[in-house]
Amino acid sequence: MKVLLSIKPEYVERIFSGQKKFEYRRAIFKDPNVTSVVVYASSPIKLVVGEFEVNDVLYHSTKRLWKTTRAFAGISEENFFRYFWGKKTGYAISIGKTRRYRSPLVLTQTFGITPPQSFAYLDD
């Protein structure tokens, strides 16, 4: 099963370059059958640019999550804790094999949905 995630363009680039091996989330999909994430690069790009395999999903206190993943966070410690402000726990999706599309896709035309605030399940 696939989910679509809206991700800021700067982090999208780090994912596909291999610098960012973890995608952080305050809330996450509950279906354990999710094996792949379709990447929607948010404003100003506003296109579906590729996908990645889900290796694992970590759930820890934010302090432990940072300690465990910081080497491949692709984000500064300051921005990490700003993102998780007010939360004691968080999720880190471990990014597996990536695939960037040759031609980006328009979300509404391809999937018939608008950009999700958190995530959206997609049909395989």
List keywords for this structure.
six-stranded mixed beta sheet; Archaeosine Trna-guanine Transglycosylase, Chain: A, domain 4; single chain; globular; 4 helices; alpha+beta; 124 residues
Descriptive account of the structure:
The protein is of the alpha+beta class and 124 residues long. It contains 4 helices and 6 strands. It has one domain (2-122): Archaeosine Trna-guanine Transglycosylase, Chain: A, domain 4, CATH 2.30.130.30. Helices cover 23% and strands 42% of the residues. It has a 6-stranded mixed beta sheet with strand order 2-5-4-3-1-6. The N and C termini lie close together (6 Å).
What's the number of structural domains?
1
What would you report as the Rg, rounded to the nearest angstrom? Answer: 14 Å
Mean pLDDT: 96
| pLDDT < 50 runs, ≥5 residues | none
Please identify which CATH superfamily we are dealing with: Hypothetical protein
What quaternary form is this? Answer: single chain
Helix content: 10-25%
Treating each run of at least 4 consecutive H or I residues as one helix, how many helices? 4
Strand order of the largest sheet: 2-5-4-3-1-6
Spatial gap, N to C terminus:
6 Å
The CATH topology turns out to be: Archaeosine Trna-guanine Transglycosylase, Chain: A, domain 4
Estimate the global geometry from the Cα principal axes. Answer: globular
At the first level of CATH, the class is Mainly Beta
Proportion of beta-strand residues: 35-45%
Biggest sheet layout: 6 strands, mixed
The helix/strand order is: EHEEEHHEHE
Structural class: alpha+beta
- Tally of DSSP β-strands: 6
